[in-house]
Amino acid sequence: MKDKIFGVLQRVGRSFMLPIALLPVAGLLLGIGSSFTNPTTIETYHLGKVIYEGGVLYTVLDIMSKTGSAVFDNLALLFAMGVAIGMAKKEKEVAALSGAISYLVMNTAISVMIDAKGGVEAMAANSTTQVLGITTLQMGVFGGIIVGLGVAALHNRFYKVELPQVLSFFGGTRFVPIVCTVAYLLVGIGMFFIWPVVQLGISKLGALVLSSGYAGTFIYGLLERALIPFGLHHVFYMPFWQTELGGSMVIDGNTVTGAQNIFFAELASKSTDVFSVSATRFMSGKFPFMIFGLPAAALAMYRAARPEKKKVVGSLLLSAALTSMITGITEPLEFTFLFVAPAMYAVHCVLAGLSYMLMHILNVGVGMTFSGGAIDLTLFGILQGNAKTHWIWIVVVGIIYAVVYYFVFYFMITKLNLLTPGREADDVEPKLYRRADMQDKKQGAGAVAAKAEDIVSALILTGLGGKTNISDLDCCATRLRVTVSDSDKVDDKALKESGASGVIHKGSGVQVIYGPKVSVIKSNLEDFLDTQYSEHPEELLGGADNTADNSEKQAEKSENAQNASAETEIIGAHMNGKAIKLSEVEDDVFSQEILGKGAAIEPSEGKLYAPCDGKIDSVFDTKHAVNMVSAGGAEVLMHVGIDTVKLGGKYFEAHVSDGQEVKKGDLLLTFDIEQIKAAGYKVTTPMMICNTDDYAAVEQLKEGETAAGENIIKITK
Hints:
This protein is of the alpha+beta class. The chain contains 26 helices and 22 strands.
C-alpha cells in the first residue's frame, strides 16, 4: 500500500511539470515587461527618453508584462488541463479539453451558489475571487489540481466506453467531457459547502508556517532539497507557491494568495516599493547554492579527480556547473552526490536549508519562475534594483557558500575516498549521474530477482517490437490486446516463448493469448514499461534461461496430476441454454481451442453457475468472466459473451469474489442478455479447461438443450 501511494504521488508530481514548464517563459515576459515599464526602473536607468507611456517600446513591454501576468492569473486553469494530461493514460488531448470544461463548470456552479446565498457581500471576507470573469471561491491552484486529478480518473475509466447502439455516437472519447461536465457540476455545488472549511484550515496552517520564523524557513529549504531524490519536491513546494499556505496579501485592491503569486503580482504592480520577504522566503534561498555553491562543489570534484582523467571530467563538470549557474537545473550534480555518497547530499540539504534561512534573515526579496539560476536573478533581482530586492546579499552569501562548498566537499571526497567522477577504476568511464541511475542503484541487491521477474515482460516487449511500437495496451479475460504502430515488427516466436498459447493479428491490433492469468501479465508489463530496462529489454534476455518458466509449468502440471484422486472428473453445465461445440464459437481463440478444450452454451437466461465444487481463482474486473479451480484440480474458465470486455462491466453483476469456496450450482454471475445483445455483442459463453494438457482427454458429453448442472464435460486423467 505504501509503495502504491508513493507511486501515485510521484505520478502527480510529474504531472505538475507540464504547467510548471510554462512558468519560465511567462516569468521572462513578465520580468522584462514589468521591469522596464516600472517608473522606478525607468528613472534609475534614465530610460525616460526611449521608454514612455504611449510609445512603441513601452507598449510592447506592457504587452509582454500583461501576457506573462495572464499565465500566472490563470494558473489554476492550466493546472486543471496539465494535470489531466499528465495523469491520463491515452487520448490526452481529450483529457485536456475535459479539464478545461470541468474547471469552468465547477466555478460556474460555485458562482450560482454564491448568488443564491446573497452574493459576494454575504460571503466571508477575502473568500471569493474572479476567474475568467466568473465570481467563485478563492481556491487558487488547488481548484485546478482537484479538477485535473478527477478528470484524469474519469477519463481513464470511460475513454473507451461503448454505449448502446442508439447512443453510440456519444461513446468512447466523446463520453469523457460529458461525464466530466455532470461530475464537476456536482463537485462545484459540493465545494461551495466544503471549501470554506478547507480554506479556513489552510489559512490557519499558513499562519502557523508564517509565524514559524527563520526556523520554519530552514526546515522548508531542507525538506525541499531532501524530497528531490523521491521526485516529490513539486508536490511539496507547490502549495506554498500557489496557495494560502504561502501567505496572502492585498495588492492593488486584489487579494492574492501563494508566495509566487504574491511576488509576481508585486512585480506587475507599479506601486511596489519593496518585495515582500514573507513570500520570497520560499524562493530566494535557491540562488546562493545554485549559482555559487554547486559549481564550487563541481570544482572540488574536478580537483580531486585523478590527473589522467581530469580532461574528460573537466568537460562534464563544467557543463553541469554552467547549467546550474545559468538555469538553476541541478540534477546532474545533485544525483552524482546521491549516487557516489549520500552523505554529501545530506550535507548539501543542510546547506540549502541554511541558505533559505539566511536569505530570509537578510530580507532578500528575489522571486523566481521555477529555479534559482542567473537568468532569474537578473530578471527578478538585479533589474528590479537593490532597494526593492536586496539582491546584493545573494552575491555576498553566494561567495561564502562557494568557499564552504569547495572545502567541505573536497575534504569529504579525499578523506572518505569517495568515488566521484574521475576517481573511478581505470576501466570505468567517468560520468555524471541522473535520476534513472539512482533508481537502478536502489534496486541494488534485488536486481537479480527483478531480472527473473521481468524476463517474461522483456520477452513480450521484444515480441511486440519494443516500447515505441506500442500505442495501446489492454487485456480481456484471456488475452493481451495491443495496438502496435508497425505490425511487421511483431515477433510471434518471442511472444510464444513468453508463455503465450497463440497470437492473433488483426491489422495493427495484436491479441496475445495467455489465459486467465493475463491480467497479472498485463500489470507486470505495465510496471516493466516504467523501468529503464524497457528501453533495451534484450539486456535482460541475454544469457537468460528462457526454459525456466516451462520447467516450472511442467512441474506444476505433474503436481496437479499427482493430486488427482480419481481417473475421471465430470464438469456440469455452467448455465441453462443450448450447448454447442467450441468449434462453433465465433472467436478463433475459443474455436481453435487455444485456451483448452471444453464446451459452449447459448444461454437462455442471464445466470452463470458453478459447474463443480471448487475455489474461485479470479473474477475479472469487468465481471464478464470467472476462473475457478475444481476440487480435482481442473482450471475452469467461463467467459460470458464475445468481446464483452469492452462493456467495462456494464450489464454484469458478480456474486462471488476471489478466493471464495463454491459448490456446484452456486450463482457466480448475473447479466442482462437483452442489453448486451442490444449493444451489439453475442452472449455465447464458452467454458474451457485451461490445463487440458494435464489430462489424457477432455471431451464434451452433450449438445443441444441443457440445464445448469447437467453433465457436459468429462475429464480423463
